[in-house]
Specification:
The complex is a heterodimer of chains A (354) and B (316). Chain A is an alpha+beta fold. Chain A is built from 10 helices and 11 strands. In chain A, strands 1-2-3-4-5 form a 5-stranded mixed β-sheet, sandwiched between helices. The chains are: A alpha+beta (354), B mainly alpha (316).
């Protein structure tokens, strides 16, 4: 009897030790498990700096919207739809997200194919139609011009913007879900390096306006028609030179039109001996960046060159000035106050405007 | 542009196309009939029909065993005697194994002998039920993907038909003739509607088709026909840059191709679920339980020749 009792106690102690060991090992694994690589560039399409920048953006997407977004470039995936599903499961895409939200972008250079695989938890938000639009109207034009990293980043920006809208409109399903895919998303030809990314969008010229407001309206009209012509009359000469080498996508133009549709312009500020003008919007309309215009050859023309240097956008698309850049349009903002990052201070600026 | 479609209902859309002359009354009726692919109620493990009798017998055997066990245990506890219990004889005596302990030991032994097989049988039965339900659930995903495609087809038909109408009006002013390309596209629309209706008719058979390889193969062929007609229409649209470059057509094509991919995934997962289920009902010891519960073998979806003939997505 006593022998049996000792044996039972020893057995229980051994079982307890084994259980404790497994528990400790398990918790150690979870603590030391490194974050997965968010950008795997097997095809060598990006510089290390570009890959790091993308990874950083994806980190914010996870932090702000709980979306686990990965990028995988490869040279021989075979059939891209099947490969994407296989990799989605193999890499555990969506596993980093509490709510199982996963996105996987696969670019296969050899097959000339790109697929954005959307996990089931995100299907309601990122529909096949939206992904098709993003691929054709934003990503592929950059790819055609050989700018793969820029195309991916520009796509991520659109995804981020869409996620922001979803968060604002309670479009996300907040429940915890399995990180799985049912085959949602879209695939298309990547057309990397094919050239002429913007070519089909170059349409007829648009004349400069007789007033700064008229020029801005004409420009927004051109954007609504998806006219990416860099030689529009309403640009300054410097702007035309700058735009000559740019990739301009339909989605970018659509985005400009949609953004400014909700903006309410303030009275035009004219300075620089009557040769410079600024069309600005209330600082509370944070996504409505100001327009810089210069009078040249008898018309008001958009100075996108200076806007490009001086105005920056955060990942939430709120604009701010790069305080290191000197520009001649400061006269229009003397009644506003800016924080140390260059963002206009809403309360103070609103009071000053009154 | 707004990629997320939130337009009129499918019925409204078809009626409007009919009223505007975009679709002929016959085409409209055919499209209307092809709208819902939802099948009848799925067969489930509780509605297995012929198996119910055997299940009932098995249940009665179980109940009888339990009753017998109860009666036996009462008899054993009573020590086989009757009348007033003689406590002095049944209480434990020092160093002696009492009558009550013997009875309990016997009872426990009998319970163990009966309970262990019953528990194993129940566990096997439940795992077969779970696997069968997984087959039904994966079939529901297949149906849902077909429904998704069925919902999108009226939009595709409308977009292409309106474009053709516009083209016809333009051409009529110049040549008063429709080109061969337009005729091909119009014929593709007609064929797509027919194929969709044929597939919907087959899908309305309900869940019984899962037991019938021929029925499932017929659905596979009908669905391939729909996919093929759709791809044909997209291929013909290549010749019409104005149609092809329109955002509406582009996103519609993206949605339909996306649906084709979902169908492939759903079919693949259905076949996996069927394989797991079929194996479990054929291997021992599951086959013993499957025989009593009448768990029948399920049909696989995709035959090899169908897979070879599946429409290949031609990226736009």
């Amino acid at each position: 009897m006593r022998r049996s009792s000792i044996f039972t106690k020893a057995l229980l102690a051994a079982l307890l030790l084994v259980a404790v060991k497994f528990a400790v090992d398990g918790s150690r694994d979870r603590r030391t498990q490194p974050a997965p690589d968010r950008v795997v560039d097997e095809a060598g399409l990006m510089t290390p700096g570009q890959a790091a920048r993308l990874s950083e953006y994806h980190r914010f997407l996870l932090k702000d919207h709980d979306i686990d977004y990965r990028v995988l470039t490869t040279n021989s995936a075979g059939e891209v739809n099947a490969y994407s599903i296989e990799k989605f499961e193999e890499l555990g895409v969506g596993g980093e997200s509490r709510t199982g939200r996963g996105l996987l972008l696969v670019i296969d250079v050899k097959q000339d194919a790109v697929r954005l695989e959307v996990g089931r938890a995100l299907e309601g938000m990122f529909t096949d139609a939206f992904i098709t639009y993003v691929q054709h109207r934003q990503m592929v034009p950059f790819f055609r011009d050989g700018r793969v990293a820029d195309g991916i980043l520009a796509t991520t920006e659109l995804i981020y913007t869409e996620a922001q809208k979803a968060e604002k409109n309670a479009g996300f399903d907040p429940r915890e879900q399995d990180a799985v895919t049912a085959g949602g998303g879209a695939a298309t030809r990547a057309r990397i390096g094919e050239g002429n990314g913007t070519g089909e969008l170059v349409k007829g010229g648009v004349a400069a306006g007789g007033s700064p407001e008229a020029t801005v309206m004409a420009y927004l009209g051109a954007m609504a028609e998806r006219n990416a012509n860099p030689d529009l009359d309403l640009f300054t000469e410097g702007t035309r030179k700058m735009l000559a080498g740019w990739t301009v996508t339909p989605a970018q133009m659509d985005n400009i039109v949609q953004t400014y549709r909700a903006c309410h312009a303030e009275p035009v500020k004219v300075g620089g001996a009557g040769k410079l003008a600024v069309v600005r919007y209330p600082p509370a309309e944070r996504q409505c960046s100001p327009w810089f215009l210069r009078e040249e050859k008898g018309g008001w023309r958009l100075d996108l060159t200076m806007m490009q240097k001086a105005v920056r956008f955060g990942r939430t698309n709120a604009w701010h000035f790069d305080l290191q850049v000197e520009h001649p349009y400061r006269f229009a903002f003397e009644d506003w106050r800016f924080d140390r990052h260059g963002f206009p201070v809403v309360k103070d600026s609103a009071l000053a405007a009154k | 542009m707004e990629p997320n479609e939130a337009g009129p209902s499918r019925e409204e859309r078809i009626s409007r196309m009919e009223a505007e002359g975009v679709l002929s009354p016959a085409q409209a009726e055919m499209l209307r009939q092809s709208l819902s692919v939802a099948s009848g109620p799925q067969a489930s493990s509780d509605e297995r029909g012929p198996s119910t009798g055997r299940m009932a017998v098995a249940k009665w055997v179980l109940y009888l065993a339990l009753v017998l066990l109860a009666v036996l245990s009462v008899g054993l506890l009573e020590g086989g005697g009757g009348g007033i219990q003689e406590v002095s004889q049944t209480i434990n005596q020092p160093g002696v194994t009492g009558e009550m302990n013997k009875s309990l030991s016997n009872l426990l032994a009998i319970m163990l002998i009966l309970a262990v097989p019953v528990a194993i049988w129940a566990w096997l039965h439940n795992s077969l039920v779970s696997r069968e339900e997984a087959v039904f659930a994966s079939w529901a995903q297949v149906e849902s993907s077909y429904q998704r495609r069925s919902d999108l087809i009226p939009s595709l038909v409308e977009t292409v038909s309106r474009y053709l109408r516009h083209e016809a009006a333009t051409l009529a002013q110049v040549t008063r003739e429709r080109g061969a390309g337009e005729r091909d596209l119009a014929a593709a629309v007609e064929e797509l509607i027919k194929a969709q209706k044929a597939s919907t008719d087959l899908l309305r058979q309900g869940g019984k088709m899962l037991d019938d390889p021929e029925a499932l193969a017929a659905i596979g062929r009908a669905e391939l026909q729909v996919g093929g007609q759709m791809q044909r229409m997209f291929a013909l649209a290549e010749s019409y840059p104005e149609l092809k470059s329109a955002d509406q057509f582009l996103t519609l094509q993206g949605q339909l191709e996306g649906t084709e991919n979902r169908i492939n995934v759903a079919r693949m997962r259905f076949d996996e679920a069927v394989e797991a289920y079929n194996q479990s009902i054929r291997k021992l010891p599951g086959s013993l339980v499957a025989g009593v519960g009448r768990f029948s073998r399920k049909a696989y979806f995709q035959a090899d020749e169908e897979a070879e003939n599946a429409p290949k997505l031609d990226f736009h």
